Amino acid sequence: MQNEDLQESMRKSYDRLFINNEKWIEARTKEDPEYFHKLAKGQTPQYLFIGCSDSRVPANEITGTDAGEMFVHRNIANLVVNTDVNMLSVVQYSVEVLNVKHIIVCGHYGCGGIREAMQNRSNGLIDKWLRNIKDVIRLHKDELDHIHDDDLRYRRLVELNVKEQVMNLMKTSFIQKNISEYEFPQIHGWVYDISNGKIVDLEVNIEDEFPGYGDVYKIDID
Fold first, then answer.
1. Based on C-alpha coordinates, what's the Rg of the chain?
2. What integer pLDDT is reported at residue 220 of this predicted model?
3. How far apart are CA 119 and CA 192, in angstroms?
4. What CA–CA distance (Å, rounded) separates 25 from 18?
5. 141-177: buried (b, 16+ CB within 10 Å) or exposed (e) per residue?
6. Chain mean pLDDT for the chain
């Protein structure tokens, strides 16, 4: 009986998605009868949003943007890993084909991936991904060790992780090339506060916050 109740609950939760889809279509076409016809013509987003997979951080909703305005890539803890072909393909396509003007790395307070990376325990396969966050901890260990409040240290790591991912974006040759030739995209680091819905711009300045960036990572563009 318990299994039957579970199956029924699962069926209803799945069917709800299609019911909501019909309601959404009705609402959109009521506002604008040509809405889907316009979307089908193509997309010209101004933004690439690299965010966390956390279901509480919906890119379009928190920025008030509509479909077609924001290209989105999400993964656990909003990482920019320079060996991640999936992420790099999204970034290159957004820069070289879609011509986005802004790339936003958006972390969030309360991130489970960040919290887990702060622990010294085994989680299986995901440990390989979380190791990228542990590298951020290693790079900023002195600062983090001087924060004695656990919650404040956790929040600070969220911010530092975003800044490091912005730095990782700036290491890529096609972003450097595009900025050199066209002066875009601009790269931004944000943190979203789930507790109040606000977005915080960390105003990351690569040259100031990462001394030596130009000497080590800057590529000569012909």
1. 20
2. 81
3. 23
4. 11
5. eeebeeeeeeeebbbebbbbbbbbbbbbbbbbeebbe
6. 95
Q: Which stretches of 118-172 are DSSP H helices?
A: 126-139, 141-145, 150-170
Span 112-167, pLDDT tens digits: 999 999 999 998 999 999 999 999 999 999 999 999 999 999 999 999 999 999 99
Q: What is the largest CA-CA distance in the chain?
A: 70
Q: Are 136 and 160 in contact (CB under 8 A)?
A: yes
Give the integer Cα–Cα distance in Å for 175 and 173: 5
Q: pTM for the full model? A: 0.93
Number of alpha carbons in the 13 Å side-chain half-sphere of residue 191: 22
What would the two tokens of residue 114 be?
Answer: 């960040």
| Helix H or strand E segment including 50 | strand 47-52
Both tokens of 150, joined, read: 């656990």
At which residue do the structure tokens 């393909």 appear?
89
* 8 A C-beta contact, residue 111 and residue 151: no
Q: What is the pLDDT of residues 33-76, one digit of tens each?
A: 999 999 999 999 999 999 999 999 999 999 999 999 999 999 99
Active site residues: 52, 54, 56, 108, 111
- Tell me what the mean pLDDT of segment 192-199 comes to: 98
pLDDT at 222: 64
Distance from chain centroid for Cα 137 = 19
Residue 80, both tokens: 């920019």
Q: How far, in Å, CA of 114 to CA of 158, rounded?
A: 7
